[in-house]
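User: Hey, quick favor. My workstation is busy. Could you predict this chain's structure for me?
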Amino acid sequence: MEKHPIAAKDFRHTAYVVEAHIATITLNRPEVRNALNYRAYDELESAFRLVSADNDVRCVIVTGTDPAFCSGDDVREIMSEEANRARAGRTDTGTPRPTPAAMAALACDCPMIAAVNGAAVGWGMELALFADIRIASEKAKFAELFIKRGLVSDVGGFYRLSDIVGPAMAAQLLFTGDVIDAVEAQRIGLVSEVTPHAELLPQARALAGRIAANPPLALRAMKRGLRQARGTDAEAIGSWAIKTIYQLMQTEDHREGVASFLERRPPVFKGQ
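Assistant: No problem, here it is.
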């Protein structure tokens, strides 16, 4: 049975506002650079489903509360909750499913703009990749950090990144986990525009306004057409990614990747 989406009025870590046919989804955990815990993931999924269900929405902007766009998983909180689940015997051993927030974002029929106001790393970069258009503040940074934690990317890195920056550059970003700045992101085509920080949201809203001025049925049809043109099964890729992530989470290298991050030291990987 599918769970009911969280109502926007009950969001704790996300702000959801609709104005002039434009929905704005803002990650709002600035104290942890908008890192995602399980609740934040659930709210993101619900927000994208709200957009899809609201025929009055013609464009959606995704952004974060300064100083970051999204710094990926809240490692301390998620690891703590995973440990609690394991102790209670509630570890999920069923068929791996794609990340629900990812699939809700990919299934969203509205044109989507990511207004990247700061670091978009790990799953934060995945979130930016789900958008149709990315514009960046001069303060933005991007990284597919999964390899640094002994993991693989989620569906965004596999399903979207090659289409956006090309196979070789996608491979370089995924294999190295390198951090790139906004200028480099624009050079490789990851973002279409770099703006002064104070102008990012006004620029995103102006672009969303131009999009929202078009016929709403045609906009949603155009978005579905772009999705179908990719011709790849995102759900299958997402399921494979989650299955592989679960397997890699059992390795010593993953535990070392997390520990070295939390302890702020260089990792020592052993291939185990």
